[in-house]
């Protein structure tokens, strides 16, 4: 077995990777010879039972006969990426199959990205599927799945393809060992079964009250997909620039953090405390989750002190990195590696800071600022075996699929979020002029319908969790989980437009918990940082009165349930595949748009701000275009972010004086209550 050495600075390895010429993408066009139905069929087959050898005759035939190096004209880089990967295979350097894979392991990531590069340089779908089938048989399964998902997302050849939900492709990372064990037994005795998945922990652990959030398969899919849409290793040479990636990193994690805190408040828990390198990690974690190959995820007891992790970082390093970033915020500039400065005392500062904190390959100075977030994930993942004495595999924190299960994820992100807050707090508060929308006034805002949450059952397919045996048919095996949902509702607003003509308005809707866990009402200056983004959209306002109704299901924060893998297979087999509304799975699950309420109602401040789209919208016709459905946290695929204003506007900066917000007619606040129905819906 190979031994992997982690570099101290993860980000530094990013810059050192070989770069290929991706040919600027001009020559890329959807391959007209291969229909979307056919491409979807291929992707389905490539991802079915990834831990088994290919059974499908077409793909197996390809895998047996295809030579990735033979026809170099099929690649935009004349086969350089394909040759590089083939060389690794020939020289026997590739990670074996049936071994765990972690993106945070530099060598494993390098291998996965070598395949990603091959797929990205393919000029035709044939090249893409031939390589995918070939490498599926020759590379580690985890690396293969990661490369295929990211390539389908980022290559034009993948357009229209719906990637199956990861929890039905690699179920081990989304359910627990108990359920997996039952699945194996069901398979062995050839008896169909549906197994209830319980949330990790026991009633003795109060963190279990909110485990439904961190272990929600839809929320996990959102998180892991966001990191595929905006990979930290992304370089523009792959084909395009990921607009406002650093700011999105801040915003998507900020929203996860504030949503988690709201769920805690609804369960009579205090908001999460931030992690600190000098303090013990209060919450331990027993994941009850195992790798398909590689054993159990390691546990961590309560209240352990951080230890240096061999080959990753010392605890001191983390403090030093943190201080350098805090210095940048205090100075108001980031220092590039050539010593020049990037001013961050403006709307764009948060984007730069996000690149630095994660760090992504966009960071201007990885030598100095390192990679606080990425290193912290690995540091936390290794605290159970910091010196590798017990040969434990990576912890749940080292996978985006599983990280939110561990309460320390939210501690870590609260800590990072507070660093971002320090920056936002250093900017001057918005003035009346920044917020005004001449002639436009919100007369009333409210909710149509009832804000009501409940838990319901949901089942997903576990067939891919178990191996197939020759001549033995699959039986139906499902996991049943309990998940949060809400009744549909609408936001309503009566808006007067006193301008002579119609105006295009940007609507921003937030819901902010009103009271802390002791019932004390938050001040504006405290509460604004806890606001949950509910929606953002554009609407033309006619002169006079306008009655605006916006359905919860249309929110630009959310996505619908990803269709089941079997649904995708059936749809592709029927022909004329078109499920374009499901092509993106980045976004808060629709059913979790509304934070959980309380039986007698939990108070939120509903905030609606209507501002002038003349200053906000980057697109000419934002009202007609839904920008891919979930643009608020996930941007618009391959294009610039549709909104020019900072994410979180107009409540992202401190509010020392709430009077402007009270007086200005185009921002309005109303107290609403979210109720929780205790009866479980089946
Ligand atoms: Cu994340």
Automatic annotation (TrEMBL):
User: Domain Tyrosinase copper-binding spans what residues?
Assistant: 406-417
Signal peptide (residue range):
1-16
PROSITE patterns in UniProt = HEMOCYANIN_1, HEMOCYANIN_2, TYROSINASE_2
UniProt KW Signal keyword: yes
One MF term in the entry's GO annotations: oxidoreductase activity
| Keyword Protein biosynthesis carried by entry | no
Q: Where is this region: Disordered?
A: 618-648
Put simply, this protein is called Tyrosinase copper-binding domain-containing protein
């Amino acid at each position: 077995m190979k031994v992997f050495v982690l570099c101290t600075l993860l980000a530094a390895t990013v810059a050192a990777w070989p770069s290929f010429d991706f040919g600027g993408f001009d020559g890329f066009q959807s391959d007209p010879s291969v229909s979307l139905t056919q491409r979807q069929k291929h992707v389905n087959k490539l991802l079915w039972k990834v831990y088994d050898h290919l059974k499908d005759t077409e793909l197996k035939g390809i895998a047996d006969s295809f030579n990735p190096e033979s026809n170099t004209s099929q690649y935009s880089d004349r086969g350089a990426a394909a040759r590089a990967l083939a060389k690794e295979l020939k020289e026997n350097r590739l990670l074996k199959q049936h071994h765990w894979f972690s993106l945070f392991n530099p060598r494993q990531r390098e291998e996965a990205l070598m395949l990603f590069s091959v797929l990205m340089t393919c000029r035709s779908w044939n090249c893409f599927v031939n390589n995918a089938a070939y490498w599926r048989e020759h590379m580690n399964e985890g690396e293969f799945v990661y490369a295929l998902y990211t390539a389908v997302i980022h290559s034009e050849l993948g357009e229209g393809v719906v990637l199956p939900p990861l929890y039905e492709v690699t179920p081990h990372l989304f359910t627990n060992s108990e359920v997996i064990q039952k699945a194996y037994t069901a398979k062995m005795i050839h008896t169909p079964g549906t197994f209830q998945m319980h949330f990790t922990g026991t009633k003795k652990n109060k963190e279990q009250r909110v485990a439904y959030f961190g272990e929600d398969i839809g929320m996990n899919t959102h998180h892991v997909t966001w990191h595929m849409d905006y990979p930290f290793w992304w370089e523009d040479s792959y084909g395009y620039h990921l607009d406002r990636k650093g700011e999105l990193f801040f915003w998507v994690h900020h929203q996860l953090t504030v949503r988690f805190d709201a769920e805690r408040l609804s369960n009579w828990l205090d908001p999460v405390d931030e992690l600190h390198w000098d303090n013990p990690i209060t919450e331990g974690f027993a994941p009850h989750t195992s790798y398909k190959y590689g054993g159990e995820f390691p546990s961590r007891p309560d209240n352990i002190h951080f230890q240096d992790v061999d080959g990753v970082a010392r605890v001191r390093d983390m403090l030093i990195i943190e201080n350098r970033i805090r210095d940048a915020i205090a100075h108001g500039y980031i220092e590039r590696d050539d010593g020049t400065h990037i001013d961050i005392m403006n709307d764009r500062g948060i984007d730069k800071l996000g690149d630095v904190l994660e760090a992504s390959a966009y960071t201007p100075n990885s030598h100095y600022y390192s990679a606080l977030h990425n290193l912290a994930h690995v540091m936390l993942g290794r605290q159970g075996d910091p010196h590798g004495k017990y040969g434990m595999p990576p912890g749940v924190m080292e996978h985006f699929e599983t990280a939110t299960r561990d309460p320390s994820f939210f501690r870590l992100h609260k800590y990072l979020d507070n660093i971002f807050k320090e920056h936002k707090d250093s900017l001057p508060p918005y003035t009346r002029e920044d917020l005004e929308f001449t002639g436009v006034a919100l007369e009333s805002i409210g909710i149509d319908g009832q804000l009501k949450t409940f838990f319901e059952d949901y089942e997903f397919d576990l067939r891919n969790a178990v191996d197939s045996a020759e001549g033995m048919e699959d039986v139906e095996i499902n996991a049943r989980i309990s998940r949060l949902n809400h009744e549909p509702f609408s936001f309503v607003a009566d808006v007067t437009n006193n301008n002579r003509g119609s105006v295009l308005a940007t609507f921003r809707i937030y819901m902010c918990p009103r009271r802390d866990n002791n019932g004390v009402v938050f001040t504006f200056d405290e509460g604004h940082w806890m606001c949950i983004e509910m929606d953002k959209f554009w609407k033309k306002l006619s002169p006079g009165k306008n009655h605006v109704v916006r359905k919860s299901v249309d929110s630009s924060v959310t996505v619908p349930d990803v269709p089941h893998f079997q649904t995708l297979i059936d749809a592709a087999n029927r022909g004329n595949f078109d499920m374009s509304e499901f092509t993106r799975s980045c976004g808060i699950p629709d059913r979790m748009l509304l934070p959980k309420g309380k039986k007698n109602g939990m108070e939120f401040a509903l905030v609606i701000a209507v501002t002038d789209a003349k200053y906000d919208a980057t697109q000419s016709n934002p009202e007609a275009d839904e920008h891919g459905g979930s643009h608020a946290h996930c941007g618009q695929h391959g294009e610039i972010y549709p909104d020019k204003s900072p994410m979180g506007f107009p409540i992202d900066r401190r509010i020392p004086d709430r009077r402007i917000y009270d007086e200005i007619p185009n921002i309005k606040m109303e107290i609403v209550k979210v109720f929780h129905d205790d009866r479980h819906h089946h």
